[in-house]
Amino acid sequence: MKKKWLKAAGLCLAVSLIFGGCASSGNTAENADKVEAHVITDEGGNQVELPEKITKVAITPIPWASAVWTIDGGSDRIVSINPSAMAQYKKSFMTKLAPEFADISTGEISQDFSINIEELMKLSPEVAFIWNDQEAEAEKLKAVGITPVMLNYAENLENLKKDLTLVGRVLNKEDFTQELIDYHNDTETYFINKKDQVAAADQKSVLYLQNKKLSVAGSKNINNYLLELTGGRNVAAGLEKKWAEVNMEQIMEWNPEIIYLSNFDDTMPEDLYENKIEGQDWSNIDAVKNHRVYKTPVGTLRWDAPCVETPLMLKWMGSIQQPEIFSDYDIRSDIKDFYKKFFNHDLAEEEIDTIYNVKANQ
User: What's one GO BP annotation on this UniProt entry (predicted)?
Assistant: First the structure.
């Protein structure tokens, strides 16, 4: 009996050692994966070790306040944003989607993106999203225990998707972000697949006007690509800049057939139709004579800037520039679906009118 008992005990011990060893090995691998998952490469090329738990974030880049809100499904973790981002929020449809966003602090970040480190420390964020040229700010943040994550200004759609992916990883919202990126990819692919039809079509000449100072979108502006993709010809494509100031004489020489007015200032189509801007005469421009001046949409952010709603901007521009080629989608139906899927909001018809500036564009 004693020998049987000792034999059984030995067997149990051996089994426990085998499975215990396996469990120990498994835990080690699991922990290694966990640590690796918290190391990312940001858009400054830096290897960034993220905190194990992220409960608070600060955001210096203006467009990324609304993007972080979208990806994270709310503003609970956002403690500080750029005051310019707050100013944009107050003019956007996002005020209806997220009234609580108005309570986020703006006193720690300046409009020039500099950070008051002492004030930001009082809010105790674990992570701060910054631009990829803010090396000095990054060092200051690291010195006080705040992890900087650099984002890149999205000069093209690929950069935009990289930034979205990065934010999703930081916030542990990768599945949602991938769905958003899939929508971006599907929309861009749709327009790329129509490029032969677009090339054969009458491509309207288009001016993308940023403000009353006659700053226009040049070849290095993301809107140049959006215009071309959706069947327009940017009259300022010969200017190798993001935005370039021109004079009225140059615009008269270009004589665009379509004019888009950005939301970087409050210029409206009627200002051009009625020649309200002092020192400028728009009366002989084809776009004005033919009533083809459009104020661009504003959703959770102005659509002029690269943002989560850029696919909707593509669809809106396509419907204006090449309605016959891009007749197989309905922008009103698509924006409803998008807002339901990514913002969990059922858009009413009048809300769509507000986002699309329908009244101003009549």
Answer: cellular response to iron ion
**CATH 3.40.630.30 applies to domain 40-182:** no
Task: Indicate the pLDDT class of residue 257, thresholds 50, 70 and 90.
Answer: very high
What is the rounded CA–CA span in Å between residue 348 and residue 42? 38
pLDDT tens digits, one per residue of 160-177: 999 999 999 999 999 999
Say if CB 258 and CB 205 are below 8 A apart: yes
Phi then psi dihedrals of residue 299, to 5 deg:
-105, -115
Degrees, nearest 5: CA angle 163-78-46: 35
Mean pLDDT of 296-309: 94
- Confidence at residue 325, expressed as pLDDT on a 0 to 100 scale: 97
Q: What type of residue sits at position 316?
A: W
How far is Cα 212 from Cα 261, in angstroms, rounded to an integer?
10
pLDDT digits (tens, 9 = 90+) for 57-82: 999 999 999 999 999 999 999 999 99
How far is the first Cα of the chain from the last one, in angstroms, to the nearest whole number?
98
Q: Using the predicted structure, report yes or no on whether residue 313 has a pLDDT greater than 70.
A: yes
Asked if 210 and 216 count as a contact pair (C-beta separation under 8 A), the reply is yes
- Start and end residues for every CATH 3.40.50.1980 domain found in the chain: 40-182, 199-355
Q: Is the pLDDT of residue 256 over 70?
A: yes
Quickly state the pLDDT bin for 34 (edges 50, 70, 90).
very low
pLDDT reading at 30 higher than 90: no
- Classify 255 in phi/psi space as left (phi over 0), alpha (psi -120 to 50) or beta: left
The number of residues making up the chain comes to 362
